[in-house]
Amino acid sequence: MVIDLNKDYTAQQIQVLEGLEPVRKRPGMYIGSTDLRGLHECLREIVDNSADEFFAGIAKNVWVYIHKDGSATIQDDGRGIPVDKHASGVSALELTMTKLHAGGKFGGGAYKVSGGLHGVGASVVNALSSRFRVVVLRNGKAYYQEYKKGEPQKPVSEASQSQLDSWLPKRLSAEMGDSVTGTITTFTPDPTVFKNIEFDSERIKAHLRDRAYLVPTLSFHYYDERTDDEAHYYFEGGIKSLVAHSNREKNTVSEVIYFSRQDSSQNITAEVAIQYTDSFSENVKGYVNGIYTVDGGTHVTGFRMALTRAISDYAKRAGLTEKIPGGNGLTGDDMKEGLTAVIYIKMPSESLQFESQTKAKLNNPEIQGYVSSVVKEGLDTYFEENPSDAKSVLEKIYLAARARLAARAAKEAVLRKGALEGSALPGKLADCQSRDAEISELYIVEGDSAGGSAKQGRDRRFQAILPLGGKILNTERAHLDKIVKFEEIKDLIVALGAGIGDVIDYNKIRYHRIIIMTDADVDGEHIKTLLLTFFFRHMSEVLQRGYLYVALPPLYRIQVGKDVTYAYTEEEKETILKEKGNGKLTVQRYKGLGEMNPEQLWDTTMDPKVRILKQVMNDDAEEADRTFTTLMGEEVAPRKRFIQTHAKLATLDI
C-alpha cells in the first residue's frame, strides 16, 4: 500500500484553537490533571490571586466559601479588578477572565511581588467551570459579569443591592463607601471536565493554613456550608511557625533555625527555616511568592548544596568528625533523615521562571547560587553561636550515616545470596504471563487460604498473586538492614523488581497495578496499614505514579433462590434486604477472603469489569507523614489522642 503523504496531510488538518478553547481541549496542560488534584488547583489559583492583593499592600482578608450546590466563592478586600475599557475594546475584567496571558503581573507596576506569572489562572478556571461569576467592588459600586464554560453571557454591568444579597455568601452593607473594595469570584466546576467535582474540606484548610504562615498578618476565613464547618487562620510567625507546626507530633533534635536575607538591588528576599527531628523521613518544601513548588527547583537545589557543605565544614572545624567504618564521610542522604525545612523566595513576578502553569518547579538559575549563599552563611553563624544544637544535629546525622552503611551491608549480603535479583522470584509468587508492566497486576493477598483461591480464580494472563504469611514488619522506624531481612517484605521487593533504597529504579517495576487485598476485619485492616506504611516510607513514588490500589471485597453474599447478590457495606446489605422483601433469604457474612471460592473471588473482587478498586494517592505529603508518625510511631500519647478523637469515624473500608 502506498500512502500519498501530501494528499493525506494538508492544510485542512491544521487546527487553530481560539480563546479559551485550548484549555478545554487540554486541561491537564494548565491545571496538571482533571482529578481531585486538578479540581483543587482551580480553587488555589483564585485564592492565590486574592493573596496577591496582600503583596500589593491592600488586602487584609481572604474568605473561602464552599456551597451546598458544589460551587465555591473566594472573596478578598483588595483593590478589585479594573472594569474600565481596555485598549482592545472590552472591559479589563472581561479581558482578564477570557483571554490567556492577560493580567496585571507582567511588569506593568500593578504587582511588585505575586504568585501569578503567566496571566492564565483565572481565565483557566473560567474555561473549566460550568458557571463562573465575578463581582468587583470599586469606587463605591459593584460590577459583575457571568460566564458559562468561559463564554461571557453579557457585558460587564453594575449590580444592584438585591442581586448582591442573593449572590454573596456574606451580606454586604447597603451603603458601600469608597473604602469598600475587592473581588468576589464564584465558580462551579464543570462535571464534563473533572472526574470528581466535590471539594475536600481538609485539603482546602491545609492550603489556607500554609498560606497564612507564608503571608503573615493576612487573615484567611473558611466556611463550608455543606457541613457548617468553619476555620480561621492568622499567623505572625511566618515559616518559622510553619516548621514548628509540621513537627508538633515529633521529638525534635534542635530548635527551629531561621535566617533570611534581602537583596535590594534585585528585589529578592530569601527566608529559610530548618529543624531536625528523630524521625527517619524528610520534609523539605520550597515556596516562591507564596506558591508551593511541589517539585522543588533551583531554590531547593541551592539549599541542599549549602546544607551539606555547612554541616561538613562545621564538623571539621569543631573537631567532631566521626570516623564511619567503611564509609567515605557524610552524604546528602545522611542529612535528609529527620530534616524539616522551608525555603521561601520572594521576588518580582516578571522575573519568575516556572516549569509549567501549575508552578510545580522553579527554574530561575540565579536563585540557586543566591539561596546557597544565604544558607551557608546562616548555618555557619548559627552553629558557631549555638554549639549544643550543632552537636545534637551532628549526632543525629552521624547516626543516620551509620544506619545507612549498616543497611547497605545487609542489602549487599542479601544480594550476594541472590535473593533480590530479578531472576530469583520468590517461590510463593504466582506470576502472570504478561511481561508488559502497564497491563500487569500484582495482588498482595492475606494468608495462604485466600492466596490459593486468588491463584485459581485469577486471569493468569495479567494477574499475579503474592500471598503474605501474616502481619509484616512495621517499617515506620525501621532501617533497610532490618527491612531486607524480613522474609515477607523481601519477597514483595523481589516480586516488584524495582529494588529498594539508594538503588531503586521505578522504571523497572514489573506491575503498574499493585493491589492490596486483605480481609474486612481488624487483622486485615492492620495488615493493610502495615503495607501502606511500607510503600509510603520506602517506595513513595509508587503512590506518586498512581500504581497502588486497595481492593474492596464484599462483606455479604445474599441469595434468593438462584439469584445471588453481593453487598460491600452494611448499608448496602440493608437496602438489598428491603428490595428482596420477605422471601426466603440466605445471608452469608464473609469473615475472610479464604471463605470465598475462586469463582466468587473473581466475580466480586478480581474481575476488572465489576471489581471495586480504590487508588491510594499522596496529595498532602505533610499530612500523610504526620498521620503515619502518629499511628505507627513509638509515641503512645499522640496515637491514643488520635484514636479517641477519630474512633467514631472509623470504618472497615479504606
Can you give a write-up of this model?
- The protein is of the alpha+beta class and 654 residues long.
- The protein folds into three domains: 21-233, Histidine kinase-like ATPase, C-terminal domain (Heat Shock Protein 90), CATH 3.30.565; 238-412, Ribosomal Protein S5, domain 2; 417-553 and 614-649, Rossmann fold, CATH 3.40.50.
- The protein is built from 22 helices and 22 strands.
- Strands 1, 2, 3, 4, 5, 6, 7, 8 and 9 form a nine-stranded mixed sheet that branches. It has a five-stranded mixed sheet with strand order 10-11-14-12-13, sandwiched between helices. Strands 16-15-17-18-22 form a five-stranded mixed sheet, sandwiched between helices.
- The protein is globular and about 75 Å long.
- Its EC number is 5.6.2.2.
- Keywords: ATP-binding, DNA-binding, Isomerase, Magnesium, Metal-binding, Nucleotide-binding, Topoisomerase.
- InterPro entries: DNA_gyrase_B_C, HATPase_C_sf, HATPase_dom, Ribosomal_Su5_D2-typ_SF, Ribsml_uS5_D2-typ_fold_subgr, Topo_IIA, Topo_IIA-like_dom_sf, Topo_IIA_B.
- This is DNA topoisomerase (ATP-hydrolyzing).
- Pfam families: DNA_gyraseB, DNA_gyraseB_C, HATPase_c, Toprim.
